[in-house]
From TrEMBL:
<keyword id="KW-0732">Signal</keyword>
<protein>
    <recommendedName>
        <fullName>NHL repeat-containing protein</fullName>
    </recommendedName>
</protein>
<dbReference type="InterPro" id="IPR011042">
    <property type="entry name" value="6-blade_b-propeller_TolB-like"/>
</dbReference>
<feature type="repeat" description="NHL">
    <location>
        <begin position="128"/>
        <end position="152"/>
    </location>
</feature>
<dbReference type="InterPro" id="IPR001258">
    <property type="entry name" value="NHL_repeat"/>
</dbReference>
<feature type="repeat" description="NHL">
    <location>
        <begin position="160"/>
        <end position="199"/>
    </location>
</feature>
<dbReference type="Pfam" id="PF01436">
    <property type="entry name" value="NHL"/>
</dbReference>
<keyword id="KW-0677">Repeat</keyword>
<keyword id="KW-0325">Glycoprotein</keyword>
Amino acid sequence: MPAILGTGEHRYRVVDNFAKLPDGWQLTDVASVAVDSKDRVYVFNRGAHPMVVLDRDGNFLRSFGEGLFSRAHGLHIDADDNLYCTDDGDHTVRKCTTDGKVLLTIGIPKKPAPFMSGEPFHRCTHTALSPKGEIYVSDGYGNARVHKFTPDGKLIKSWGEPGTDPGQFNIVHNIATDSDGWVYVADRENHRVQVFDGEGKYETQWNNLHRPCALCCCGGAGSPTFVIGELGPGLDINRNVPNLGPRLSIVDAQGKRIARLGSEDGPGVASGKFLAPHGLALDSRGDIYVGEVGVTNWKASFPDQEMPAAVRATRCLQKLERVRE
């Protein structure tokens, strides 16, 4: 029987072996995932075919991005089905059509800004849009900033610096917005999500999280909910400590936990377990798609175990089907 995660109204059935790829293809790490208006699933991955497109049943439709993307990291899709692809390997954000035509590039490919300079970009991580279509970019590994751009890619402002105080970041890893214009930032190694207004003014923070990595806003105007993908322990000393993830948490607009999905007993490849949730998306039916960087994370979680072939092939993409009973 498929594993069931969650409780009450937030119960999800794990769809095992979801992705059906052409023979010989591998996703490797799935850095991020997005769903368009027709429930087609865009899988931004670090394999030979960076953008793999599936239908909602996991059937292969097409791929693109070969030779274009250096290292997949973040993916956002707007109301017009434009894809915002964040590549931390060449320090760019590319706006693309659903068949891979590049409409806009922000950043200079393979030209990072100086480390912790605050200038865009040094290993940028993700994007989100304001209600007016302005582009927020989290930046990232070599910076501790959020940048705000006009819809055509002109820099408006930036905020943030390294540290642990409000408005400071320790790996600004993901970003989301809601219909009211609030900006939510996954401050991964500070174990929190920070909330700002659209101009970067600090509002509050959500705690009781463990290395929040993926962040997805869903729900209607005025009452959004959020799904947060949390990484498990990253240190040898706490590798086997329970209740630290990897897992998904569902919270309300105040950051109050509504539900939690796995993994009380740590990472794994069995049905109902996670490896390293890195990207999230929901479709029109409320089903959750989880991109995981299980290949990159394997040695941190399982230093003495050989990685199963399935992890590199398709296991880094999971579908959780909402139970309606």
